[in-house]
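REVIEWER CHECKLIST
Item 1: Sequence provided? yes
Item 2: Single chain? yes
Item 3: Sequence as submitted:
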Amino acid sequence: PRSQAGLLLSLVVAGFAQGLTTPLVYELAAELLYPVKEGMSAGILVLLLNASCALLIVGNDLLPPDAMNEIMTATAAACFIAVGLGVREEYRRPV
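Item 4: Structure as written out by the authors:
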């Protein structure tokens, strides 16, 4: 963004989108790991998020600043592709 208002708007939209999608991601993790309890799937998800954030923090000092944008874009694209191609609908809960 070229102005502070544009930056503020971008941050508000990004925060709103993250707040909307976070419960969906936790629910998807619980469904994908069904026989495992929901707390365990949430714990695994938090562990993966913290590990990836730690790698980005370490990489922030080692890589040029422009590389972080490319890494985040590639990571988001890889997640969308993995969910889109790798998740198949299958109801495994008892009826």
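Item 5: Key structural point noted by reviewer: The chain has three helices and no strands.
Item 6: Recommendation: ____
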